[in-house]
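Action item from last week, closing it out:
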Amino acid sequence: MALKLLQNGRLLTRAFQNLHITPTTSTIFAKNNDLNLNFSRNTSFFVKLPAEDLWKGVTSVSNAGRKRGRAKGLVRRKDLNRGQVIGVGKANIQWPGLSAPIIRGRELIQRQQLPPDPEREAKLIKMRDAMSSKGYQKLSPLDRGWTGAKLGGRSIGAPDPIGDDNFEGFDTKVIEYKQVFNMKGNLGRKRRLSAFVVTGNHNGLAGFASAKAVDGKAVLRKAKNRAAQKLMYIELCDGHTVFHDFFCQFGLTKIFVEKKPEGFGLVCHRAIREICQLVGIKNLYAKVEGATGVQHIVKAFFLGLLKQKKFEEIAESKGLHLVEFKPELGNFPRVVASPKVCRKEDDIKYDEIMDYTQVAMNGKVVLKRKKYPPFYANTYGYHIHLKKLEGRRNHFKIKFDMLKEHGTIKSFLTDKYPDARPHGFILRDAYLKKKAEGEETSAE
């Protein structure tokens, strides 16, 4: 082999036998000083060691340092092969049989240069960093639970099918996910994971269960499949709420639940809200008193849902008609249930509880916060306002009661003096009277 160099406009050819190489130096000296070559090292610290040793130098810590908490701020290992696909690189080329099918329909695909993808490097970096910061991929805000870092409130899907039975339309929410420890005589402190979940089909079927296992995926699968075997049917009132207000208790946990009209929403504890969504309840108010452990809250609320009484059962137990007043219907009375034999007024005892709320709450009364007077209650201007308002302070309530009872605003003098009614109603009555006379004339 010969070296061909162009020097001073002429071609120099030197054979290796004319070179004198000194072993202790990295320089080649040619005869007559015509040729000088320098060798360079092609190995370094970053190429000499494998990737496993390089990552170990960045991510490892001694056992003594780990006990002192020095392992918390270490860099997590990145998978540099994540997102790399065979046949796809910086040069965006379509390779038939590798990165693209050979035949597309009736078209034979040829190798071709595609337009460059400027976001490829950014996507690879984002994909690699997703598992490096905290050990899990960032979730969408809609997929998060009660917090961004824990499993509480997160959906884990429907239970696994049992034979030919598929749980279509079901969903499972994690209520509690924690570590539990048990001291063994031969194994020492044994660590396991505990999960408490609720599953439901958003249409009255729901169940809850807890499970323990060593692996996280195993404990979630075990808990949701166990909850699917303990389903309970809960009937809904009008398809969106409970039948009546009720009180329920489990241990030291007490819950007061109130029925609410459509559009109110779910104003309650977050564990109760998850249960309501899985059962199908859309409007409800619940107040929790006492202990606030989520397992006791779930058990107490399920007990209250199962102990609900239908309207027919309440009417039959009291022997009276059950009448409902709804604000959205103008508080118009509506009989929702009637007993087979209705009691008379003489049959009702003087000390019998007739308040529907106390009957539904089983004699319990919600402790409501005391209402304090506003800051302007003792001012001079507010007292003047009350004096001016004294003559008409109950007008709105009286108008409302008149419309509810008589359908119009009138007093005991209205029959004798027809003008003794509000001005707007006089015009309305005259208009209705004139309209009725016109209809009679047209009918004739």
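Closing note: Confidence is low (pLDDT under 50) at residues 1-33.
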